[in-house]
């Protein structure tokens, strides 16, 4: 780049508005985008958190007007688990790859302290898998099945008493990781006046505990009014059903009781339609975007910082990825060199230690050998003396023996001579 000077213009001042003399065609860009998106299909991942039997599966069937054929869970699991299933749905010419991730055994344990852990881990794992794909040299994000959770429907038990501590703890742990939409499950079991109080109580509790829930966006003019209005109805009180009842000449999803019928899609009976409208028809794309731009971004930032990357150096000056990488590499090499030196020094010290230990042992062995040698010489000397003494004694014995024999024979002769005289 030597000799080339690039003038950095102030872009704002340099942009000029020009008129086209005729139709060029880039006004079809939005259509091109739509066509491409339709061709690729869409991915949407829902997580349902709620106690066993709170109506999670029934609500999913009602929301997507199908039967996902899920089996009920037992109440006896020792810990919370997650069960994810992916389905391919078609509406008109739009393909939707839908993943429903359900909690199993949530709220069934005596100790509920760690109930949120499985959920947090699952969400983090999906972010991590995406990050690893993104960091690959040869990445295939266009064909990658994005499993990051776009919305978490938190099913609140219709007690009328407010939130349970497990609800608050879990939502607090998740609020920076996923778009939380709290809903009151089985809302047909709570009366109209109680419901309003219950809703206010829940919202107050969420606010007091600083739990950030997903708010329908109001920055887009086309939906700001409806979204703003819907925000005031949160948490939606929903009813689900797999049964259909004939009302007039129409078959509608409903729950039948001895005293009457609760229609799932009747806005005066429950907020099901509001939930479907907000979740699927109006804000699905916003939730997908927020997941990527807000929650994933936060996860990515934290993980990269954990790995030692940053956009600024110690003096708060901008630093590039490459610079950080090179600094880290140099640092790493230095550390490695230092470790090698330390090991070498340690090796020398250990060798010296061993050497002196061996010398000491050799010295001890020599001393032992000398002592043994001395003892041996002394013993030998003593034995020699004893032997000599014994030899002397034998000589003396023999001398005395012969002397005695001599004396004996002369005495015998004498005695014999005397007897002859008689
Ligand atoms: N009253 C009432 N009952 C409901 C509602 N939704 C579901 N149920 C009933 O509650 C029971 C459990 O419903 P599911 O949809 O299987 O609940 P779930 O949360 O998926 O249960 P698990 O998957 O076993 O944890 C069924 O008998 C449903 O008919 C509702 O809105 N109101
Ligand atoms: Mg279920």
Q: Which CATH first-tier class of the largest domain would you pick?
A: Alpha Beta
Which blocks of ≥5 consecutive residues have pLDDT under 50?
none
Q: β content, as a range?
A: 5-15%
Instruction: Assign the CATH topology of the largest domain.
Output: Rossmann fold
Question: What is the radius of gyration?
Answer: 48 Å
Molecular shape: elongated
Main pleated sheet: 6 strands, mixed
Separation, N- and C-terminal Cα atoms = 159 Å
Domain Septin-type G: 40-306
Family: Belongs to the TRAFAC class TrmE-Era-EngA-EngB-Septin-like GTPase superfamily. Septin GTPase family.
Coiled coil: 322-400
Region (Disordered): 402-422
Summary keywords:
binds magnesium ion; 10 helices; alpha/beta; 2 domains; 422 residues; Rossmann fold; three-stranded antiparallel beta sheet; 9 strands
Could you walk me through the main structural features you see in this protein, from its secondary elements to its overall organization?
It comes from Agrilus planipennis. Keywords: Coiled coil, GTP-binding, Nucleotide-binding. GO terms for molecular function: GTP binding. This is Septin. Pfam families: Septin. The chain has about 425 residues and is of the alpha/beta class. It folds into two domains: about 270 residues, Rossmann fold; about 80 residues. It is about 50% helix and about 15% strand. It is built from ten helices and nine strands. The chain has a six-stranded mixed beta sheet, sandwiched between helices. Strands 7-8-9 form a three-stranded antiparallel beta sheet, with no helix packed on it. Helix 8 crosses helix 9. Bound molecules: guanosine-5'-triphosphate and magnesium ion (MG).
């Amino acid at each position: 780049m030597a000799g080339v000077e690039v003038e950095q213009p102030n872009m704002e001042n340099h942009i000029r508005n020009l008129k086209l003399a005729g139709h060029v065609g880039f006004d079809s860009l939005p259509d091109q985008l739509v066509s491409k998106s339709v061709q690729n299909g869409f991915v949407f991942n829902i997580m349902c958190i709620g106690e066993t039997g709170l109506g999670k599966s029934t609500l999913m069937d009602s929301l997507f007007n199908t039967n996902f054929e899920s089996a009920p869970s037992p109440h006896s699991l020792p810990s919370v688990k997650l069960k994810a299933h992916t389905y391919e749905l078609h509406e008109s010419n739009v393909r939707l790859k839908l993943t429903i991730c359900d909690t199993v055994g949530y709220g069934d344990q005596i100790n509920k302290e760690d109930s949120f852990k499985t959920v947090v881990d699952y969400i983090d794992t999906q972010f991590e898998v995406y990050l690893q794909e993104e960091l690959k040299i040869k990445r295939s994000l266009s064909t990658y099945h994005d499993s990051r959770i776009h919305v978490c429907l938190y099913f609140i038990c219709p007690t009328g008493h407010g939130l349970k501590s497990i609800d608050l703890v879990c939502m607090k742990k998740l609020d920076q990781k996923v778009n939380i939409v709290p809903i009151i499950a089985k809302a047909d079991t709570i009366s109209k006046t109680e419901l309003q109080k219950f809703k206010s109580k829940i919202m107050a509790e969420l606010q007091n505990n600083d739990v950030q829930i997903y708010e329908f966006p109001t920055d887009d003019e086309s939906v700001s009014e409806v979204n703003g209005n819907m925000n005031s109805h949160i948490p939606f009180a929903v009813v689900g059903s797999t049964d259909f009842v004939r009302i007039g000449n129409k078959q509608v999803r409903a729950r039948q009781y001895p005293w009457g019928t609760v229609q799932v899609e009747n806005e005066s009976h429950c907020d099901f339609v509001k939930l479907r409208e907000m979740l699927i028809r109006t804000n699905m794309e916003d939730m997908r975007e927020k997941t990527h731009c807000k929650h994933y971004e936060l996860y990515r930032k934290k993980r990269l910082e954990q790995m030692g990357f940053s956009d600024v150096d110690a003096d708060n000056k901008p630093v590039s990825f490459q610079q950080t990488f090179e600094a880290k590499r140099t640092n790493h090499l230095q550390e490695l060199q230092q470790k090698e030196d330390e090991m070498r020094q340690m090796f020398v010290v250990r060798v010296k230690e061993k050497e002196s230990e061996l010398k000491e042992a050799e010295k001890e062995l020599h001393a032992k050998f000398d002592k043994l040698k001395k003892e041996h010489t002394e013993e030998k000397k003593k034995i020699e003396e004893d032997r000599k003494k014994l030899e002397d004694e034998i000589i003396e014995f023999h001398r005395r023996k012969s002397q005695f024999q001599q004396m004996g024979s002369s005495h015998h002769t004498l005695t014999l001579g005397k007897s002859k005289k008689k």
